[in-house]
Amino acid sequence: MAPSTAGAITLNINGEKHTLPVDHRTTLLDALRERLDLTGTKKGCDHGQCGACTVLLDGRRAVSCLQLAVAAEGREITTIEGVADGERLHPVQQAFLDLDGYQCGYCTPGQICSAIAVIEEHAAGWPSAVTGDVRPEAGAPPLSAEEIRERMSGNLCRCGAYVAIVQAVARAAEVEAEAADADADADAEEAA
Asked: Confidence band (pLDDT; 50, 70, 90) for 188?
């Protein structure tokens, strides 16, 4: 008797658990879109080259077209539908809206998920391919346009909204840094 190629899995998506039967060869992208109707994540190239299907797995970006759904079991999956805080947009979403960081909008969900991870990676001091000094004691480099372009290079925009995308990522990074500073100041006052 041949082993089964299907089974039930439980995915933790946007803070909610979803149990569904899947073929073990089902990609996370197809499970999200076709089984759970979370259609914000887009199918672009289906080869991991365009970034339209980018989601966050445990806070790190991943192209969901190359991720098997069974391999995502037990991990925290965040799609574009889960980045806002209720009615309040995530700072990256707000920056994309304010600075027109989209044209047709097809790549925008993947761009936003990538940008969220880019900002967190940068804040944690992760270097990129264009970072001049990669020594840990050097700290995070300035989040320049060159840094943003390199860090977002896995996401393609066929409309060419790259200038506005870079501006939106930079603005969102500033907003998040200001919020982190305000939280640190409040914690220091509370401790005193």
From this structure: confident
User: Is beta strand 76-78 parallel, antiparallel or unpaired with respect to 6-13?
Assistant: parallel
Three-state SS sequence of the chain = CCCCCEEEEEEEECCEEEEEEEECCCEHHHHHHHHCCCCCCCCCCCCCCCCCCEEEECCEEEECCCCEHHHHCCCEEECHHHCCECCECCHHHHHHHHCCCCCCCCCHHHHHHHHHHHHHHHHCCCCCCCCCCCCHHHCCCCCCHHHHHHHCCCCCCCCCCHHHHHHHHHHHHHHHHHHHHHHHHHHHHHHC
Q: What is the pLDDT of residues 39-90, one digit of tens each?
A: 999 999 999 999 999 999 999 999 999 999 999 999 999 999 999 999 999 9
Q: What is the mean pLDDT of residues 117-135?
A: 93
The reply to whether the predicted model has a pTM over 0.90 is yes
Q: What is the mean pLDDT of residues 15-33?
A: 97
**Rounded distance, CA 36 to CA 157, Å?**
26
What is the Cα gyration radius of the chain?
18
Place of tokens 């803070």: 15
